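Summarise what follows for lecture notes:
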Amino acid sequence: MSKTVTKVPGRPTWQQTMLRISDPKKSIPFYTDIMGMTLIDTLDFPQWNFKLFFLTTLPEGEEYTLTPGTQEAHDYMWSIEGTALELTFNYGTDDESFKGYHAGNQERDGFGHVAFNTDDVYAACERLEAAGVTFKKKPDEGRMKGLAFAYDPDGYWVEIVKRSEPNQIKNYFNFSQTMLRIKDPSKSIPFYEALGMKLIRGKNYGDFSNYFLASASNVDESVDYSALSDDEAKSKLSTMFGPVLELTHNHGTEKDEGFKHYNGNEEGRQGFGHIGFLVDDVYAACDSIREMGYGFKKEPDGGSMKGLAFAYDPDGYAVEIIKRGGIDFGDKKVSSE
C-alpha cells in the first residue's frame, strides 16, 4: 500500500541524467567541444564490457584539473551539487554493424530531450550548423519560433533555448533541461518534491502542460516560487545555471488506466536510461522511497553492486539512488600519478 512521503531523508540532490551512446569518439567531442561541457570523470568496467562518461557545465573560466577515471575525480563527481550528463558506452556499439539506440519521441515514448540555454538561439544554431550539427527543427521552422532542436551523434534531440535575460551567464551554452513525459502530475510532482526538488514553473498550453522542477543547487530559498507570475517564473528558470527536470503531461493520460509511457529500458527501445540522485544514506532513503509504493528495479543489496539502488518513479522511469561521496564500484581506475 502506498503512503504519502513528503521528504526523503539524506538531502537528495539530482546528480545525473543517463543516455546510452554508440561511440564516445563522436559523443564526447559533441558535448565538450561543441556544447561546452567538461568531462569530469569516467568509470570503466571491462569485466562487464561498458564504460561511463560524466560531463557537466562548469562556470566559464573554471579550470578542471582532475584526471577522469582517478579516485580524485570520483570523489569530486560523487559530491557535486550540480547535475551531470552520464553517457553509457557498451563495448562494441561503435562497430558499424550496430543499428543504434532508440532516441525517443516516437509514440508513447517517455524521454523527450536534453536542452542547453544560450543568449542567441539564431547565432548558436549557425555555430552548430558550421560545426556539422544537423537539426530536427531550426529556429524559424514550425509553429514555435525562436527555439531549435539539434541532433546529437546518436539522434537524441538537443533543444536550444534562449535565455530571457542575456549576459547573466557567461557560458555560451549551459546544460539546462532533461524532459520526461508523465502520465499524472498529481503523482509525479510529489514524488520528485520528496526527492528534494522544487516546482519552479507550471504552464498549461491547453492540451498539455509543462512542469519545471529544480534541485537544491538551483533554488533560491528566499523566493516563494508559487507566488511568482508566469513571466517571473520563466525568468527565474532562464537564469538558473544548472538544469531543471521538465515534466510534460499530455492531458487525458491520467484518465486512461492502461496508458503507460516507454521508459527507455525496454528491449528494442533502449536509449535514455535513468536519472540519479545523491543521498547521505542509501538505505534510509530507500526505506522512505519504498513507502511510496512504486517499487524498485534494484534494491540496495541486490545484484553485484551493493549500496546503490534503482527505484521506480510513478511512470516506471528508473531513478538511481547513490551514496554521496560514492562507493567502491569495482571499476578499473586510472592512476593519478
